């Protein structure tokens, strides 16, 4: 049976639960944060548009830069061939929009196939900041208690597949998971939170980024995504960035509003 997870942190915990031998042959890590960025060609290698999005997000001061095009293409090809093999598939998911989108993406890949799809739910069902949980946020020692696979029934599988197709068609900048569905939007709300945390006086950029990350429901804002929005707002002359890049490409930077 395949075990699919979002990200390396989740993979560490799941490996502890299923064992290193099983993980070595059956655990697959998908690293694309499906909650943000265009999806127009995520299923069509070489995934040029989506790869360029991640190249834009990646801080120039952080090297080496990942080969996003190759990684995205490998995932797309693997998922396209998933229904043609004979191993059932289990998706580990919680309240992360990316995890829920992965589940929907796999359901779409298996649509029309008799291959069983299983899910392991580790979340609260609530994607708001006070309640939400991602698989990678659960301590590895505690994750075993959630290892209760449930088969995805045909009706739910079809619903998930339809949600994935809708997300692809919308091709929005951001997707939030709320009340069991995905809601598309542009960057306006996220940028407003960021700008509200800024002042005319200089302050550490990581402090403002942390405010955005801690105030956004429906999906997990990563540090690199928050830093990218800062660079985009600076290019629009809404804010000014100062200082030196420092750790992670942003650690030594400061920010202030432009009057």
Structural class: alpha/beta
Largest sheet: 5 strands, mixed
Helical proportion? 40-55%
Q: State the helix count.
A: 10
Give unreliable regions as ranges. none
Measured distance between first and last alpha carbons: 57 Å
Strand arrangement, major sheet: 2-1-3-4-5
Compute the average pLDDT.
97
Order of helices and strands: EHHEHHEHEHEHEEHEHHEE
**Share of residues in strands:** 15-25%
- List how many beta strands DSSP finds: 10
Number of folding domains? 2
**Global geometry:** globular
Backbone CA Rg: 19 Å
Write down the oligomeric state: single chain
Structure description:
The chain has 2 domains: 177 residues, no CATH class; 71 residues, Arc Repressor Mutant, subunit A (Orthogonal Bundle), CATH 1.10.10. With 259 residues, it is of the alpha/beta class.
Quickly list its features.
10 helices; five-stranded mixed β-sheet; 2 domains; 10 strands; three-stranded antiparallel β-sheet; alpha/beta; single chain
Topology readout:
Elements (H helix, E strand, L loop, with lengths): L1 E5 L1 H11 L1 H7 E4 L17 H10 L10 H13 L8 E5 L3 H13 L7 E5 L18 H4 L6 E2 L2 H17 L3 E5 L2 E5 L2 H10 L5 E2 H10 L8 H13 L3 E5 L9 E5 L2
Question: What is shown here, in short?
Answer:
The chain is α/β, with parallel strands linked by helices.
């Amino acid at each position: 049976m395949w075990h699919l997870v979002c990200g390396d942190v989740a993979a560490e915990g799941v490996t502890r639960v299923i064992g290193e031998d099983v993980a070595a042959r059956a655990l697959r890590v998908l690293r694309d944060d499906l909650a943000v960025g265009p999806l127009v060609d995520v299923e069509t290698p070489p995934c040029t548009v989506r790869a360029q999005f991640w190249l834009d997000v990646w801080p120039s001061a952080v090297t080496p830069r990942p080969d996003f095009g190759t990684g995205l293409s490998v995932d797309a090809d693997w998922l396209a061939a998933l229904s043609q093999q004979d191993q059932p598939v289990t998706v580990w998911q919680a309240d992360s929009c990316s995890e829920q989108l992965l589940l929907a993406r796999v359901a779409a890949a298996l649509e029309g196939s008799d291959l069983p799809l299983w899910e392991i739910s580790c979340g609260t069902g609530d994607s708001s900041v006070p309640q939400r949980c991602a698989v990678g946020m659960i301590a590895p020692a505690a994750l075993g208690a959630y290892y209760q696979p449930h088969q995805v029934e045909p009706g739910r599988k079809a619903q998930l597949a339809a949600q994935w197709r809708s997300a692809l068609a919308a091709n929005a900048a951001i997707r939030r998971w709320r009340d069991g569905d995905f809601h598309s939007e542009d960057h306006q709300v996220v940028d407003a939170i960021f700008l509200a945390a800024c002042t005319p006086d200089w302050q550490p950029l990581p402090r403002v980024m942390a405010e955005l990350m801690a105030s956004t429901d429906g999906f997990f804002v990563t540090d690199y995504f928050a830093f990218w929005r800062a660079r985009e707002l600076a290019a629009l002359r809404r804010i000014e960035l100062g200082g030196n890049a420092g750790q992670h490409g942003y650690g030594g930077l400061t920010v202030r509003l432009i009057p």
